[in-house]
Specification:
The protein is of the alpha/beta class. The protein has helices at 2-10, 15-34, 43-51, 56-66, 81-86, 102-106, 115-125, 130-134, 145-154, 171-192, 198-221, 231-241, 246-265, 291-298, 312-315, 326-337, 349-361, 376-391, 408-423, and strands at residues 71-74, 90-93, 137-141, 160-163, 277-282, 302-307, 366-372, 396-401. The chain is built from 19 helices and 8 strands. The longest helix has 24 residues, at 198-221. The radius of gyration is 21 Å and the shape is globular. The N and C termini lie far apart (52 Å). Bound molecules: iron/sulfur cluster (2 copies).
Length: 425
């Protein structure tokens, strides 16, 4: 730990504030994760990663930087991980799910902004995140107005590059996005001093696709009943996917899937066969935002899928690996990254179709529509989600909340009533 303290000090962290943050985490983690009964043994690796959240991985990033490597911070699944790898860099997701540094964030942002934006700004300004301080470049995007303007502010405190994301998946929207991917390639090459080649990009695509395949394999196992793994654990794995070493992470997820296949064969589940099966849709849940999954699963349900960017939206689509030229592969990357049905698109009807398909595929009994307060894209799109689910006869509960624990009791009451209604259907 002492060597980590020196590392955090060198990174310029506010050590007193960082100590407070680290002291709060293990308590939450024990409650939410370690007390689960009958948990797969393969989760030990992911427990280790959380236990070392500001330790081992940050040390790996420093070692990489000491060798001249560059670290790129991202905030959205539209920023292609494969392109960062192809330029010789390492990516880390910086979205955070903890109410910290709010006072610092509110000094530069309005109070009424979503917790996700406030949280990443707070982590940066309060100097408590070693990942932020390890980044040589932050790559933002114009997905929603809050983020778009927040990146201008963030630019006063760190080097920021912003990609323009289209609002429609039209011919012109796709052309704009391809050009943005080409320009990002150039920016990453300038950063790392390494050229992106057809070979390096194909290699990056293959590594990230292997990670996506492993996560899809895990997701497919959750279709079975009884569910072999909790939604909490699956969410945690998705959250860790954004910053762990890509190859190590992939092999650990595959090892966990091997174990889950055995559990399925033996009929072992994390919950009984007859507990209500829930799909969560909506705003992404960045680490360590586990509030609603914990309430659902400790209240008698099991989450079997997440139509979230910390879920299926992140890994469901693969990038085509074939192509005769570098530009072909860049086109594949651009096309793949427009597959995500983020609420920033208009219209976004395919998202509604997908939610219904997921409910059917995973034999779910109901949907929780999770919206982060002040997240306009998902809050307004809730109308479409709920209309569609109603027309399909699928029970839905909307939960609008933030990162605080103040409303946990009230959410628990509503979730338990919802689960009871579903169970009695
Ligand atoms: S919800 Fe939209 S903006 Fe947020 S990470 Fe997902 S794709 Fe990006
Ligand atoms: S899409 Fe929603 S949750 Fe994400 S940054 Fe924008 S307002 Fe916040």
């Amino acid at each position: 730990m002492d060597s980590y303290r020196q590392m955090w000090d060198r990174l310029g962290l506010n050590l007193a504030a960082h100590d407070q943050l680290m002291a709060a985490l293990p308590l939450t983690y024990a409650d939410v994760y370690l007390r689960q009964e009958n948990r797969p043994k393969g989760m030990e690796y992911f427990d280790f990663v959380v236990n070392e959240i500001h330790g081992q991985r940050v040390k790996e990033l420093q070692d990489f930087r000491d060798q001249g490597g560059k670290v790129v911070g991202t905030f959205c699944i539209f920023v292609p991980e494969e392109l960062v790898l192809a330029a010789g860099g390492i990516y880390v997701g910086l979205c955070s799910g903890l109410d910290i540094g709010s006072a610092e964030a509110e000094a530069v942002l309005p109070r009424n902004i979503c917790s996700l934006i406030k949280s990443f700004m707070g982590f940066k300004l309060a100097r408590v995140c070693p990942y932020f301080e390890s980044c040589d470049l932050l790559v933002g995007e114009t997905t929603c107005d809050g983020k778009k303007k927040a990146f201008e502010v963030l630019g006063d405190f760190a080097p920021v590059y912003v990609m323009e994301t289209p609002q429609k998946k039209s011919v012109s929207g796709r052309a704009l996005w391809l050009e943005e991917i080409r320009q990002l390639r150039q920016r990453l090459e300038d950063l790392t001093g390494q050229k992106v080649t057809k070979e390096s990009l194909r290699d990056g695509i293959k590594k990230v696709n292997a990670k996506r395949r492993a996560l899809k394999r895990l997701s497919h196992l959750r279709r079975l009943s009884p569910a072999p793994i909790s939604g909490r654990d699956a969410l945690l794995i998705s959250q860790i996917a954004f910053y762990d070493d890509v190859e190590r992470f992939t092999s650990q997820v595959n090892a966990l899937c091997d174990e889950l296949e055995q559990r399925v064969e033996s009929g072992i589940g994390i919950a009984a066969k007859d507990v209500p099966r829930i799909v969560v849709t909506g705003t992404p849940m960045a680490i360590p935002n586990w509030k609603v999954p914990y309430i659902v699963e400790s209240g008698g349900g099991v989450i079997v899928a997440e139509e979230l960017c910390t879920g299926l939206r992140y890994f469901d689509a693969l990038t085509e690996e074939e192509g005769d030229s570098l530009d072909d592969l860049l086109e594949n990357v651009a096309a793949r990254h427009l597959e995500a049905d983020c609420a920033c698109f208009t219209p976004n009807t395919r998202r509604m179709d997908k939610i219904v398909d997921i409910v059917k595929d995973y034999e779910a009994d109901g949907v929780i529509n999770y919206v982060l307060s002040f997240c306009d894209p998902y809050a307004v799109e809730s109308y479409q989600v709920e209309k569609r689910l109603k027309s399909e006869g699928i029970p839905c509960l909307k939960i609008e909340t933030d990162y605080s624990q103040e409303d946990a009791g009230q959410i628990r009451t509503r979730v338990e009533a919802f689960l009871e209604i579903i169970a009695n259907k």
